[in-house]
Amino acid sequence: MMELIEELGLLGYLQKYPVNPITIVGCMIIIGIVVLIINAKIKKKNAEKQKPAGAATVILQKRNVQNNTYAENVRVHSINGKPAPWFFYKLAAAVYFLPGQNTVEIYAEWARREAGKVKMYRTEPVRLTMTVSADKIYALHYHIDSQEYLLTEGDRFEDNTFDKNLKQYVWLTQK
């Protein structure tokens, strides 16, 4: 390694300006963030290449951290029997659904702090039939207390008025 450093002419520079461990950690964090951004863009580009004509975008990740009545993540295992590749849509996980009826195998995951420890929860996978319109955006939620899935139209953030406005939506039950 020292031979490579000498060959590149960096030995004099390193002797004059020693490398600080904080600088190394900072550089590694920056490199990690850049890699994550590039990965997200590649995932979205690949998902857009595979997007069927007129497909609806379904957002799977909870947006409001303070709202603990909904699971943080809804995971789509398969859509119409095929694996569901996900991508990032405005920093949230999303998948494409074909217009019309879709048979979806899904489960939800969330964490709760209990007695000073974080406990992870996961539901059993279920199959549900969901109907979506072409070229629309939906959000898929899991309500923890009622143990029901909810498909809402639009890219809404869960807030204090979110629960009050749910009367217009149809709850998808596991039964």
How would you characterize this protein structure?
The chain is an alpha+beta fold and 175 residues long. It is built from three helices and eleven strands; from the N terminus they run H-H-H-E-E-E-E-E-E-E-E-E-E-E. The chain has helices at 2-8, 11-16, 21-49; strands spanning 56-59, 73-79, 82-83, 87-89, 92-97, 100-114, 117-122, 126-132, 137-143, 148-153, 171-172. The strands form two sheets. The chain has a six-stranded mixed beta sheet. The mean pLDDT is 80.
Give descriptors for this structure.
175 residues, alpha+beta, six-stranded mixed sheet, five-stranded antiparallel sheet, 3 helices, 24% helix, 37% strand
Task: Report the sheet-strand fraction.
Answer: 35-45%
Structural class: alpha+beta
What can be said about the biggest beta sheet? Answer: 6 strands, mixed
Radius of gyration of CA atoms, rounded to a whole number: 22 Å
SSE order, as H and E? HHHEEEEEEEEEEE
The coarse silhouette is elongated
In short:
The chain is of the alpha+beta class. Helices cover about 25% and strands about 35% of the residues.
Topology:
Layout: H1 2-8, H2 11-16, H3 21-49, E1 56-59, E2 73-79, E3 82-83, E4 87-89, E5 92-97, E6 100-114, E7 117-122, E8 126-132, E9 137-143, E10 148-153, E11 171-172
Parallel strand pairs: 1-9
Antiparallel strand pairs: 1-5, 2-3, 2-6, 4-5, 6-7, 6-8, 9-10, 10-11
